[in-house]
Amino acid sequence: MADSKFRIDPETQKRLGSQVLADLRANLWPVDCQTCGRPLGRWGKPSLEVRAQDGIATASLHHQRCRPPAWSDGTVATGGGGI
User: Fold this and answer.
1) What is the C-alpha to C-alpha distance for residues 21 and 16, in angstroms, rounded to an integer?
2) In which domain of life is the source organism classified (predicted)?
């Protein structure tokens, strides 16, 4: 299903399903990027990021350049350098 309000990655589409995505489209309004704080809308469709942890998921909108659309399961990514 194509989405005209924001960018969604395939994993998020699969996990949330069409009804939840329809609810998000109806209730999330692209105002300010949750990463940089600048207004959304000037640089194309915002990216939907969903973070899920301990049975709770939060959805937020970002500029594509600030954060790509993604599903995050609460794990922390670390660099390969190590200490």
Assistant:
1) 6
2) Bacteria
Whether the full predicted model's pTM is greater than 0.85, yes or no, is no
Domains of the chain by residue range: 10-72
Counting beta carbons within 10 angstroms of the beta carbon of residue 16, is it exposed (0 to 12), middle (13 to 18) or buried (19 or more)?
A: buried
Structure tokens at 15: 């996990």
Long-range CB contacts for residues 51-54, cutoff 8 Å, separation at least 24: 52/15
Query: What are the pLDDT digits (tens) for 22-52?
Result: 999 999 988 999 999 999 976 689 999 999 9
**Which has the closest alpha carbon to 46: 23, 72, 69, 71?**
69
